[in-house]
Amino acid sequence: MIPVIALVGRPNVGKSTLFNQLTRSRDALVADLPGLTRDRQYGIGRVGDFPYMAVDTGGLSGEAEGMDAAMAQQTRQAIAEADVVLFMVDARDGLAAQDQVIAADLRVLGVRALLVVNKVDGLDIDAASAEFHSLGMGPIVPIAASHGRGVSVLMQRVRQELDALAAAQPPGTLILDDPEALERWPGIRVALIGRPNVGKSTLVNRFLGEERMVTTPIAGTTRDSIFVPFKRNEQDYTLIDTAGLRRRSRVFDVVEKFSVVKTLKAIEAAHVVIVVFDAQAGIADQDAHLLGMVLEAGRALVLAVNKWDGLEPEVRDGIREDLERKLGFLRFARMRLISARHGTNVGHLLEDVQEAYASAFVDLSTPQLSRLLESAVMEHQPPLVGNRRIKLRYAHQGGKNPPVIVIHGNQTEALPGSYKRFLENFFRKHLKLVGTPLRLEFKSSTNPFAGRKNVLTESQRRKRKRLLRHVKR
Question: Which domains, and CATH codes, for the chain?
């Protein structure tokens, strides 16, 4: 296992800013607003000479109810997972009562913690750090996370703590893996998207078997795109829980606009996208917009209709008819009627994800595709254009995720959309592609003699003269 480093502290002390510095990314939302981070966010560390996983957490406010209590539970779980905790305080605000409470909790838990005094840029470091010695957390590490100052020194101190931890444990307990193995998240990356409050985070928790994501009846609880690796039946996955998307006209908060961008990036980063619908709310225009983004990105797709339990039979029949009418263009994708809260049919979703992933990354040989193209042409000839039949000669694979089939012929630019759809359905049926879009590209062969003048050689001219004399005789 690689070491885990958790960032904790009260709200707005700069935890997400430091997280982005450590991961060389913008994965954590950053704004001058307290309580912005709610779920714990994982990222691969890139500062320092050793591999590690950084964990950003929500601010600890001390409130015992509502959202703050759920965020505090997330932070406690991150501390339990961590090998080293970075306890962050704000040099500009000075020592606060919440800082003292957090320090006392860390001492009770007995975790290895470093006291990180942030926002020291422009201040006298000794004067700004002096009052924090009363926390009794040992040596202080001053940094300016927004500018990256002191972050490398901080990670050197973290390395010392990890080395001390390794020395105190049996040999082989702590293994620092090759950094190159951490460049990509493991297994099949699965993004969960949908409108606010359709149950995406509840579904993630159901997959994991723990309350990993903050879930409340409040729409928009999730704001970041959260990456969560796990394994099921020897298959590695990385779940990407995303913020719920609303129509652009209803996105007023700048933080929510950032979340929309992150959801779009999560779709691009995913291998398979699970689009979650609320059965009780029906299919809205925004759902169609989400599906359009997934198809435009070319990602494999699974449809999950949530909150299915407890509905009357006649209501279920009406929902089925509505789904068939509005989502008929997605017949290539599997649809599951589920209850994330009770676990109904959730186990089948991962089977659908594996099937869609296999279709998206299928290997297709040129002879196989060319034979299928020949069979398609025999079944249904291309139309005539200017009294000339469009000819389709051969096909080969041009890409994966989504699969791309490149078809060569002449006058392919004149193929009507109806015939292209026939070819797409023909290939999809015979290749047994499920859950993935299929893209066809057409290329017309050029005439190698086009534009060349009819110039005869000397020998050809002599032969032509002899032939003409013979004809005249």
Answer: 4-182 (3.40.50.300), 188-360 (3.40.50.300)
